[in-house]
Design goal:
The protein is about 25% helix and about 25% strand. It is α+β, with helices and mostly antiparallel strands. It has one domain: Ribbon (Umud Fragment, subunit A), CATH 2.10.109.10. The strands form 2 sheets. It has a 7-stranded antiparallel beta sheet. A 4-stranded antiparallel beta sheet has the order 7-6-5-8, with no helix packed on it. Strand 5 and strand 6 form a beta hairpin. Helix 2 packs across helix 4. The longest helix has about 30 residues. It is elongated and about 85 Å long.
Length: about 240
């Protein structure tokens, strides 16, 4: 009887409405903070391919710093500018956005679906790659491994010597008599990057959606630098 009174009492109903209202306010506040951060500081992406195996896998969720963060904040506070070896988000449709309404609506949908649904129609324009060369570098690829002659240097180095964190690209096996002149054979003639270009590769070198087929990528197409993998829980950490 007492519980029934609580259910129908004005005080109990008022208290329930008060709690519901605060839950809604907190959800809105969290979303607005998320919208602010993902617009100006960070973006959250779900990987749609295994092009970065063995480091990253389909379904991994990565937090990327925005161009504003990695270009303008000083290195000493942890938001370093782009460096060789960084994993980055490449937007091949940069400069062809559909106004401001669709990006905001897409952010809303991705927030409430835990990045499962993307309504922007631009999912196929985003690629996660590794930076191999920066403006002015000279790049050559032999047997799927890049050699880099940094701008102003008289020496060339393997891609692994220019990055202080080890990574292991997935090198495909090719037949012994494979013609080196064939496309995608793992070899590429020397290219020199322009003053506003970088060179990016997949860690799975059998995946050719990278600078081997696109050519050098404009710096404006690099829209984020990978900071942290938060999903799946068993592999949380720095990418």
């Amino acid at each position: 009887m007492f519980n029934k009174w609580l259910k129908y009492s004005y005080a109990a109903q008022k208290d329930q409405r008060y709690r519901v209202r605060w839950v809604i306010i907190w959800i809105i506040a969290i979303f607005l903070l998320y919208l602010l951060l993902t617009t100006f500081a960070f973006s959250v992406r779900r990987l749609e391919s295994n092009a970065m195996q063995p480091e990253l896998h389909t379904g991994d969720r990565i937090i990327f710093s925005s161009r504003i963060v990695y270009q303008f904040l000083p290195d000493e506070i942890g938001a370093a500018r782009l460096r060789r070896g960084n994993i980055v988000l490449v937007d091949t449709a940069q400069g062809r956005q559909r106004g401001i309404v669709w990006p905001i609506l897409d952010t809303v949908v991705r927030f409430f679906t835990a990045q499962q649904v993307d309504i922007s129609g631009r999912t196929g324009n985003f690629y996660v790659k590794r930076v191999i060369g920066l403006p002015g570098d000279e790049i050559t690829v032999t047997n799927f491994v890049a050699r880099v002659k940094p701008a102003g240097s008289v020496y060339s180095f393997t891609e692994f010597e220019l990055w202080d964190r080890p990574y292991s690209p997935n090198i495909p096996q090719v037949p012994a008599l494979w013609d080196r002149s064939l496309p995608f054979s793992g070899n590429m003639e020397t290219v020199v990057l322009g003053e506003d270009e970088c060179f990016v590769l997949s860690d799975d070198r059998g995946n050719t959606n990278d600078s081997r087929t696109w050519g050098a990528v404009p710096m404006d197409s690099i829209t984020g630098r990978a900071l942290f993998r938060y999903w799946p829980p068993t592999r949380i950490g720095l990418p």
